[in-house]
Design goal:
The complex is a heterodimer of chains A (about 625) and B (about 80). Chain A has about 625 residues and is an alpha/beta fold. Chain A contains 24 helices and 17 strands. In chain A, helix 3 crosses helix 5 (about 80-90) and helix 7 (about 145-170) crosses helix 8. Chain B starts with a helix and ends with a helix. Chain B is mainly α. Chain B has 4 helices and no strands. Classes of the chains: A alpha/beta (about 625), B mainly alpha (about 80). The interface of A and B includes residues 240 and 241 of A.
Chain lengths: ~625, ~80
């Protein structure tokens, strides 16, 4: 079971009987995306990639899929990997173009002027080095030689990464090194300096610890260990075709890469919606009662369900929002959370609790709405195949993992799917669940006030507006990568570029934090503005949807206008670039009193004359605004 | 497994991997006779055959197979041994 879980992507539903027919008939990219959400093997991924190419040649629009250009550099054969990446990216809503460097031209690609990657047209490059492409020379028992070898490998890797970064201006995904399964000294290799496993383990630690120009790490060492190093390494495949690992693992490898690509553009999942009966506990609370449900240590089924709760809690601590969607009476559904001694999850851990007799798709829609999250941010975990099918059919954007019958494998399967893969972690992640829970309470307060201003005044908001700084950088980059809805231009900047903007005197950068009576919302908005002498141009304006309707944007504009006015500017220019996901800010500038300057189908520009601007009185306190 | 049984399964694999439902195989068929049977799809075919018949080919076998007949002989021999 475990082996095929990863090899065959068992969390995805099986290939439908009419797969080939649907593939042949597909005339939109969304149809391909739906097909890619099944247990496709390498050959089917290749067909998806071919079909995608054909559709694009017929000028089929890529939207609503995101487009990305990925450069692949390797010292192994990537000809099977490239189409698999394209096919897999569809699963994540990405229309991917792959540019492969010549086989085994790592150094040439990195250091020469003539390079397939020069010219700054790539969004990301993937550097796949395996141990055969590194100056890894074992020297068992000779610590000095071992350390020298380690140094030369590491400096080679870091110089390649920074050369590629400099050349492409794009993020680099650096693959770490899969350890060897072949050992000359057995268990002792881990302690004997200079053996292959000693070298690779230390090299991987160095790669992880060094920032390496903020390279994103593709943890192939972890993947190979997960599927089994003995199976991962396939000497025949290397000898015959220079394939870097056994080709049966190409689909999971490609999925690992695409999870990072998805996370980079904010397409990783943020909310886990849990069914209750036979998912969080064994049995049916409405029928079996508090004493009858199976949960807790001492019973194999009870322990399996505890493991799911533990996984959910760990995800929550990492910033994943938890919700409940169950067909139950609300009172009985809440009972275990309130009074079952073995329950790990408490009511406070759940941001939205939907227990009623409506269909699950409607309830999931309600949860997403209550959390201001897109459906494509949600994962739904349910033991019942019929419910899974209904939700998949009604809400294709929601990820619904297939689960085996044995609940012992529920947590493993959920986590194997990698829905929540992250590329960054910030303090806000740790606190996010609390934000959402507080938000649900704010919604309660709001229902007690008939007018909005009364409600906002009762919140006692404090806003802090400050320029970018090193402390805020991770969160700033994260907001830039993840915000899709309240985002006027959806421009993405890497952490390096964020730093460059911070240091560039031609730009005004703002990070905005909001506190209120119910808690600290943390950093919730980012603005980047080009300071020309007469007209300041807003390059980026984004905000977290959890503070919608709090008049934060008016406060930000007030700050912006006073900064521009003080610098002698006459006008502020705002741009709106439409995407399938940011319709919520279509009238942003209009609402703020800008007038339309140019209106295209997908792009509009708006102008505000600073002389005409009337600051409104806002229901919040400005704190040490700089 | 008989020669015909193996040939039928192999035809399914060829049609699937090379995405061509009109492929007809006989013992003399070589890579030159079939459009799309290049070195890359040869690897894909080998992977699919190994999976379907639960066998493994050695490096020299992968690179020395000259026609479908030799491929079938090898599959039948290896399947019997497995």
């Amino acid at each position: 079971m475990t082996n095929s879980l990863y090899e065959e992507l068992l969390w995805l539903p099986p290939i439908p009987a009419d797969f080939s027919k649907r593939l042949e008939r597909a005339d939109t990219l969304q149809e391909l995306q739906e097909l890619a959400k099944h247990r496709v093997d390498e050959s089917q991924l290749n067909k998806l990639a071919r079909k995608l190419k054909a559709l694009l040649q017929q000028a089929t629009p890529a939207a609503p899929l995101a487009t990305m250009r990925l450069g692949v550099i390797s010292n192994a054969n990537t000809q099977l990997i490239a189409p698999a990446l394209i096919g897999t990216a569809l699963r994540y809503g990405i229309c991917l173009e792959v540019i492969e460097a010549e086989f085994n031209q790592v150094a040439q690609e990195a250091f020469s002027e003539q390079s397939a990657f020069a010219g700054g047209t790539l969004d990301v490059s993937l550097l796949c080095l395996d141990h055969r492409g590194l100056p890894l020379v074992p020297s068992p028992g000779n610590k000095a030689a071992a350390n020298a070898c380690l140094d030369s490998c590491f400096s080679y890797i870091s110089s390649v990464v920074s050369a590629i970064r400099k050349k492409t201006h794009a993020d680099v995904i650096l693959q770490n090194i899969a350890p060897q399964d072949e050992r000359i000294a057995g268990s002792f290799e881990t302690r004997l300096a200079g053996t292959m496993s000693w070298l690779i383990t230390r090299l991987n630690t160095q790669i992880a610890d060094a920032g390496l120009d903020d390279a994103l790490i593709l943890d192939i060492a972890g993947l190979a260990a997960t599927v089994g190093l003995g199976d991962w390494h396939d000497p025949t495949a290397w000898n015959v075709a220079k394939l870097p690992f056994a080709p049966i693992f190409i689909p999971i490898y490609a999925d690992y890469v695409c999870r990072i690509l998805a996370a980079k553009i904010g397409k990783n999942r943020r909310c886990l919606i849990l069914d209750l009966d036979n998912t969080l506990w064994g049995g049916v609370i409405g029928d079996d009662g508090l004493e009858g449900i199976v949960l807790g240590n001492g019973d194999p089924t009870g322990e399996a369900h505890l493991a799911i709760q533990r996984a959910a809690l760990e995800l929550r601590d990492r910033g994943i929002v938890l919700a409940v969607c169950s067909k139950n009476e609300d009172i009985s559904a809440r009972q275990p959370f309130q009074s079952h001694p073995e329950m790990l999850l408490k009511e406070d851990d759940i941001a939205v609790f939907q227990a009623n007799w409506h269909d699950k798709a409607s309830n999931i829609r309600a949860i997403a709405e209550a959390l201001s999250l897109g459906l494509d941010s949600c994962v739904f975990l349910d033991d019942n195949p019929a419910e899974r099918m209904q939700v998949r059919r009604e809400l294709p954007e929601v990820a619904v993992p297939e689960l085996p019958d044995d609940p012992a494998y529920f947590a493993k399967t959920l986590l194997a799917a990698g829905y929540f893969d992250a590329i960054k972690f910030s303090e806000e992640d740790r606190q996010r669940s609390a934000f959402y829970r507080d938000n649900a309470r704010r919604a309660e307060i709001s229902s007690q006030y008939s007018d909005l201003n009364g409600y906002l005044a009762a919140l006692n908001m404090e806003i802090t507006i400050a320029p970018f700084d090193a402390t805020g950088r991770t969160r700033i980059a994260q907001l830039i990568a993840k915000s899709n809805q309240f985002n006027l231009t959806t421009k993405r900047y890497s952490q390096n570029e964020v730093q460059e903007l911070q240091e560039n005197p031609d730009y005004l950068t703002l990070q905005i934090r909001l506190k209120d009576a119910l808690g600290d919302n943390g950093m919730i908005s980012v603005v980047i503005c080009k300071k020309n002498s007469d007209v300041w141009e807003i390059d980026t304006w984004l905000m977290s949807c959890r503070v919608l309707g709090r008049r934060v944007e008016e406060a930000v504009l007030q700050h912006l206008v006073s900064a521009a006015g003080a610098a002698g500017a006459k006008q502020i220019l705002g741009t709106f670039i439409a995407t399938p996901r940011n319709m919520i800010v279509k009238d942003h500038y209009k609402k703020l009193g800008f007038t339309a300057a140019a209106r295209g189908a997908s792009q509009q520009t708006w102008i505000l004359n600073i002389a005409d601007y009337q600051p409104a009185s806002l229901p919040m306190k400005f704190v040490n605004a700089v | 497994m008989t020669h015909d049984e193996a040939a039928a399964l192999l035809t399914t694999i060829f049609r699937d991997v090379l995405d061509d439902d009109h492929i007809v195989l006989n013992d003399e068929t070589t890579a030159n006779d079939i459009e799309g049977w290049d070195s890359l799809s040869h690897i894909r075919l080998i992977v699919a055959i190994e999976k379907k018949f639960r066998i493994r080919f050695s490096a020299s076998e992968v690179s020395s197979l000259r026609n479908v007949g030799e491929m079938l002989d090898l599959i039948i021999r290896k399947s019997a041994a497995a």
